[in-house]
Specification:
It contains one helix and seven strands. With about 140 residues, it is mostly beta strands. It has a domain of about 80 residues. A three-stranded antiparallel β-sheet has the order 4-5-6, with no helix packed on it. The protein has a two-stranded antiparallel ribbon with strand order 1-7. Strand 2 and strand 3 form a beta hairpin. The longest helix has 11 residues.
Length: about 140
Amino acid sequence: MKETEMSKTDEPVVGVPYYAHQNPYQAGMIPPNAVFGDPKGVPIQQTIYRDTPAPFNCLYCGNSGLTTVRSKLSLAAIIGCMMPMMLGICFLCPSMDCLWHKYHFCPSCKEKVADYEKLDVCAVMDPPHWTQESFALPAV
């Protein structure tokens, strides 16, 4: 081989990111600096709204605290209820809270601040993750 010719295995491709390991935060791991519960004056950069009440600073009234969560039936919960309906009963809908839409409201002014909708119709219950905990990331 001549000096001017290069083998494709000699150099990595420039401009293409290479990760040796999977990013744990993209896989759903909660950051160690996450805020749970009432933020108590902690400036919040971003709040992740999920199945549980989330710490937040209200844009409407300015109060900080935990959201109140209301649930609404989703299409995924209805489809999950159809299986036992073939046996003549529908006992899973209320207990399949992990498949219901969640709407977050400010406890002070009652304004809707966020929603967490379950849009995957083919969602299957995952018992270790029935509730996905809400959290906030503090401002740096």
